[in-house]
Amino acid sequence: MIDPTTFEFNTDQNYLNHPPFYYSLLAVLGPSVTGHPPSLIPIRLINVAMAVFGLMALLILGRHMNLGRLEFYAFAAMIAATPVLAPLAGAANNDNLGFAGGALSVLGLYAYSASFSRSWLIVACVGMIAASAAKLTGLILVGTTLSMTLMLVGMRHKVSRIDLLIVAGSLAVAASPYFAFMIQYGSPAPDTPAQSALLRNGADIAGWANEPRMAPAAFVAFFLKSFLKEWMPVLRPRNSLQLALLILPATISLFSVAGWVVSLRAVLNRRPRPLDFLVVSGMASIALTLAVHIAFSYQRHLQTGWVMDAYPRYYLPLIAIIPMAALTFCSTVQSHLLRVVLVAFLIGAPVVFQIFGAPMG
User: Fold this and answer.
1) Whole-prediction pTM
2) What is the dihedral of CA 186, 189, 191, 194, to 10 degrees?
3) CA distance 332 to 148
């Protein structure tokens, strides 16, 4: 690893278990980091560019969805006010690549579902490969969404063999680093020696190692509560108001689940819109990834006592699915006044949470 003060290599071993593509890309696009602390600025700017690219792709997606003015504001607010997005964009973190790739893939998938244009399908596949190159969660989230969307579209319209081959080839490319990990280490997300040491030492320092391990149900509840809190990651304790404001992202999540039910009914009743294909497949992919995430984290907890794995930033590749599903739910409300109130809530809630949800100072 590189010492954060001197920027020279030290004796600490690399603890990461992600594919090297993101880091190789920074090495090509950015200046040499070794021994040059000022090089961190252009490295951060490259990450800002990735995040801006992802944000622009999602704003273009909002326009493609032909949303009303208020609905578009809600869509944009729920994405732009994602608490972790701005600080992450200013860091050298492969989640920025995952966000950009996932945004591009969702845009391409929506446009493909609406037009059946092969060019948009290729865009979706390129985005999926980029998100998968960032980390395993990108492959699970975006790869599953791409596969399920194509399957749902195929139930309504004939998908050409060439399109199927494009998707199959893209999935093979995206999964290839993890096949290599499986062959070399026996796992697509191997515990490197340095990572295992980091977890054990961290659990010892925090006092978790000697505490009784949680039962599965208790761990799931703890994980989901931690996941909600980490939607606004902070280092200082929250006051009562900031804890109470967690109800805002929780409510938006409930809207999204309700929107998934609406879209699923539309698909089953053979009256789907392109949006419904994305909502059904995207929400299912998020649920699948969350289940894998919890199981993986629980295994670590049993081994070391570690409990800090509930990071919502892993789900940024599919962040657009949450407002898409929430707006789908709102669109089914018959009362115009109530529908406007709900959409106004979706506009205001992320902004209020962004401003007041974290300790100041």
Assistant:
1) 0.95
2) 130
3) 24
